[in-house]
Please model this.
Amino acid sequence: MRYLVLMLLALFGAPGALQAQTMVPKLDAPGHKGDLARAQKKRAEERFDAFDTNKDGKLSRDEVTGRSSYLSENFDKLDANKDGLLSWEEFLGHDRWPK
Model:
C-alpha cells in the first residue's frame, strides 16, 4: 500500500515539481551559454531585419512568403495575438531577448 501511495505521488506530484524550464539561455548568462545566446540573438536580429522589408518592426505574411518556408507554413501558429503580424517575440517564440 505504501508503495502504491509513493508511486501515485511520484506520478502526479513530480510534474509540478519538474515544471519545464526554458532552454533559451539568458543573454547575461556567464561563459559559453551567454556567448551562444548573444550570437543566436544577433543572427535572429539579422534574419528578422532582412525579412522586415518595410522596417515597421513586424513581419507580415507577405514579407515571409517565399523567404522562409517555416515562417510561411507556421505563420498562423506563431501569430499568438492573431493580428496578422509577427512581432519580435512571436518570431523568436520567447520573450527572453529584447530587441
